[in-house]
Amino acid sequence: MARALHRNRSLPHARYLQLATVRADGRPANRTVVFRGFLDGTNVLRIVTDRRSQKADQIGHSPWGEACWYFPSSREQFRLAGALTLIGAEAADPQQTLRQQAWQALSEAARCQFTWPEPGAPRQSEPFSQTAPADPPVSFCLLLLDPDHVDHLELRGDPQDRSRYWQTDAGDWQTARVNP
Amino acid sequence: MARALHRNRSLPHARYLQLATVRADGRPANRTVVFRGFLDGTNVLRIVTDRRSQKADQIGHSPWGEACWYFPSSREQFRLAGALTLIGAEAADPQQTLRQQAWQALSEAARCQFTWPEPGAPRQSEPFSQTAPADPPVSFCLLLLDPDHVDHLELRGDPQDRSRYWQTDAGDWQTARVNP
């Protein structure tokens, strides 16, 4: 993953990945999110989201996600499946500190969005604020994806190269090269 | 959609989108697929897939999908949710004709993959064929996504522009501009 991020660092949208969740009615949902780095020293992906968004509601019903991350420059795909954890204003430490750190790392433009009217509700004409508070509002959540299965496909090569990685119940990782 | 495709036509990976489905155990799955055009005169997206792939199995359990399609050049996202239909070798006309047409439209390189060993199984060392039959093998399926909900987000603009489109039971489309 670190190598793919480095190879694709010139593309801002290389930090965009697609996160699938399951809706309360059992249908899948899928949207682009921004990768905000790994939790220090772990494989856990950091994402931020709005408490009022559909995905926050979906995670309450089913805490599982699969991220699909395609890197155009190196033509490789990572599929990262695992548990999702939503960390909101009510969380205690040490999680609350992680949420505060994620807020501090956001740009002013990204922060403003959490002060805006409810996402997905009928469009309001009132001005959308261009300033954000210093502390995270209640709408701001840190979202963690802790992968337990990874599928890595490299399109370069004929046939392509594909490997699976998965975490055992004991916590260690196993790997297998598979047919593309 | 047609306008977004045109604006992004110089990027080969603008035809790559991420398709979410639901696994038999209720967890989401997500992978990149290639857009193969619309069914003539409809909003139905054409995709091809291997009968032996996980997604074909998942669609047997839950025929719902959501595609997330991000266009880097125009910085816009379409989320397309709807029913998935898998059309295999056993399908009757008129669906079988659609499957045959999809096969004819594939490149030789894309066709070869349907003759390869089972996708996702332990990697085999035997040569992977570089030639394909004229007629589609049993592994080849046409996959149709018929959207009934669309969410269109344009990142350009501050605040961003977001609209929803959905199909009523009567079959007509309604739309609403919503908060980003």
Task: Give structural notes.
The structure is a homodimer. Chain A is of the alpha+beta class. In chain A, about 15% of the residues lie in helices and about 40% in strands. The first copy, chain A, has helices at about 1-5, 55-60, 95-105, 110, and strands spanning about 15-20, 30-35, 45-50, 65-70, 75-85, 140-155, 160-165, 175-180. Chain A is globular. The model of chain A has no long low-confidence stretch (mean pLDDT about 95). The interface between A and B is large, with 49 and 48 residues.
What characteristics describe this protein?
180 residues, globular, alpha+beta, 38% strand, homodimer, 4 helices
Radius of gyration of chain A: 18 Å
> Percent of residues of chain A in helical segments?
10-25%
Q: Pair with the most extensive interface? A: A-B, 49 and 48 residues
Q: Order of helices and strands of chain A, N to C?
A: HEEEHEEHHEEE
Q: How many helices of chain A?
A: 4
Terminal CA distance of chain A: 19 Å
Low-confidence stretches of chain A: none
- Mean pLDDT across every amino acid position of chain A: 94
The strand count of chain A comes to 8
Q: Structural class of chain A, please?
A: alpha+beta
Q: Characterize the main sheet of chain A.
A: 8 strands, antiparallel
Described by the principal axes of the CA atoms, the overall outline of chain A is globular
Beta-strand portion of chain A reads 35-45%
